[in-house]
Model the fold of this input.
Amino acid sequence: MSDTVVTQRRRLGKTGPEVSAIGLGCMSLSGVYGTSDDAAGIALIHRAIELGVDHFDSSDMYGWGQNEELLGRALKDRRDGIVIASKFGQTRRPGGANGVDGSPAYIAQACETSLKRLGVDTIDLYYQHRVDPAVPVEDTVGAMARLVEQGKVRFLGLCEARPDRIRRAHAVHPLAAVQMEFSLLYREEATETRELTRDLGISFFAYAPLGRSLLAGVVPDLDNLDVGDTRGRHPRFMGDNFARNRRLVEHLEVIAAEKGCTPAQLALAWLLAQGTDVMPIPGTKRIARLEENLGAMNVRLSPADLDRISAAIPIGAAAGTRYPEGNMRGVYI
Done:
């Protein structure tokens, strides 16, 4: 049986109250929501470490290598007790949608490149970022398992894979983690997947746990987004969808005010209360937001609170898909 979040962290030497139950998703440091600033990104990572964050989630696709290089520079001489997660599998197609490659030859090449960018000998947690339908998952995970045998990777994971594919992969080599979008706004697929991952002892890492800022109560100026800010293409932010989603979040804001916390803290506290197998990995470019997010660990929710929060944003109530139509064909497959 694979490790839960708790046992993974114990094996990596991290225990006690000083350890954060929330990781840091590093995608935001690569210009996905506007321009990137490497110096500011390094400062944010260093502040996260000071606050007890020990799990940093990257990908070779974030900035097409820039994010791994940034994380490597930030963690130089600070590697002890830190969990580095990265991903492979999305390929760049200039002028078009990303491709996918889950072939064994590509996996070996991608891992070597990521190790060099990160400046490490071993990646703690290595995910297939997007499923490649053209390659049997058994072949993909078999190649990933060889990386474990070679000492280049410690634990394996899949992103945005359906339960049946996760089960098949786990039979080839035990998976330590599955990563998927999971928040109060979008939880149907995560709920279905966790029925399996809990049974198999697989940790669940929740990306976009704040709905790409919606659950933080942030109202972006959608008519004047920074160059590169991808929220302008997300259906959840478009027209009537955005208006409907904002009304849902307003219910959450009322509860947060009563609890004396921010909407973001309430949303993250709700996720933390779902079980010890779940670790949210919110991303941000701002130290103030980082500190706010980590404050979620101090929010105490009773069973009645959890029921009320869940009812405030019922499952399936969010308007708009998680990604634009073309991207939706590459998730949860």
In short: The longest strand covers residues 153-159. The radius of gyration is 19 Å. The CA atoms of residues 116 and 197 lie 31 Å apart.
